[in-house]
Amino acid sequence: MIRHIPKSSCILMPWKNGGGSTAEIARHPQAEGPFIWRVSIAEVASSGPFSRFDGYDRHILMLKGNGMKLQAGAHGTLPLDTAFTPQSFPGEWQIEGILTNGPVQDFNLMIARDAATGTLRSQKVTAGHAFACPKASTMLVHDTASGDSWLADEAITASTVGTFIIATITPR
User: How far apart are CA 109 and CA 168, in angstroms?
Assistant: First the structure.
């Protein structure tokens, strides 16, 4: 099954702290409340603390902007300064996002650690490239040019040239 998720169907939700907003692309389950996994794009307008997500693993990469440092206290600093290069950290960590020079847009995958594992990567492809979905997994492929995404449990073929973000979720 392949489900197309147009950019226009993602609803932008402002953060409680006023420092940005998030557009949820997909989640499982789709109902409100706790999720096993969630994929979203965040617009980070100012430096500030990240929300904690205890029990979740977080994967993040920068789509646009001049970068952000993820200060994680005793765990050090994770640079988010090169577009399409992911970083990962436990949702329990106290993270302070420090913008380098202006706002950034980032892509996020959050996974409930006890229910699933996940990966986040980027890939430049030509039209006709097939993204293979690992057995028993769910894959979300995001076209960075159009902003559209596809959710699938089977291979997806790119119809354009460009950079795509691939989030893969595998149940435990």
Answer: 9
Tens digit of each residue's pLDDT (9 = 90 or more) over 84-104: 999 999 999 999 999 999 999
Distance of CA 125 to the CA centre of its chain: 19
3-state DSSP call for residue 111?
Answer: strand
Number of helices (H), then strands (E), belonging to the chain: the values are 0, 17
Is the pLDDT at 16 greater than 80, yes or no? no
**pLDDT category of residue 116 using cuts at 50, 70 and 90:** very high
Q: Which of 38, 60, 62 is nearest to 50 (CA)?
A: 60
Question: Token digits for 107?
Answer: 């892509």
Q: What pLDDT does residue 31 have?
A: 79
Burial 99-133 (b: 16+ CB within 10 A, else e): beeeebbbbbbbbbbebbebbbebeebeeeeebeb
